[in-house]
Amino acid sequence: MNSGQSALTLVLTADPALIAIVKLSLTVSLAAVAVAAVIGIPFGALIALTRFPGRSGVIVVLNAMMGLPPVVVGLAVYLLLSRSGPLGNLGILFTPQAMIVAQAVLVTPIIAALTRQTIEDLWSEYREEFAAMDVGPVRRVLTLISDAKFSLVTALLAGFGRAAAEVGAIIIVGGNIEGFTRTMTTAIALETSKGDLPLAVGLGMVLMTIVVIVNSLAFAARRAGEMRAGS
Question: What ranges make up the beta strands (E) of 60-154?
Answer without folding.
Answer: none
